[in-house]
Amino acid sequence: MSDDKPRIRYVPDPDNPGWHTWNLADDTRFNAQTMGHMLVRKDGDKLCRVRMFPERRHTNLLDMVHGAITLALMDVALFASMRILLEGDAAGSVTLELSSQFIGAGRPGVPLDALVEVMRETKRLVFMRGTVVQGEADDHMVASFSGIVRKPSGK
Asked: Whole-structure pTM over 0.90, yes or no?
């Protein structure tokens, strides 16, 4: 599966200075169809911030962000963080574990951010943890999570 086409559109976002896009080049796949436009940036030396923009289509019957969307953001954020913090290509990697704790409800119309840090990297695995937050000062905690990603094999 090695071709020269980039799988991720990672370019500066003109509407959001300091941010880069984090969108799949193939907009028929899950990220584009379900998550919508996403952004990414490095926050300091150790954190990666991945942002999505929850809309009505992302809500449940309580008019809050559906838990599945929050889980999907966590999973996407693991791979974006590998790329941003470890400067590696996450293509071909797989999620081995994603553990989550829901703390509060996400609100539509307010950017939803996953903040991720790499705890440890080995030859084959990357251990990460993070939080999902909303609000100007990240003052609304939505969830916390940890994940293990297996890097692609050397085939």
From this structure: yes
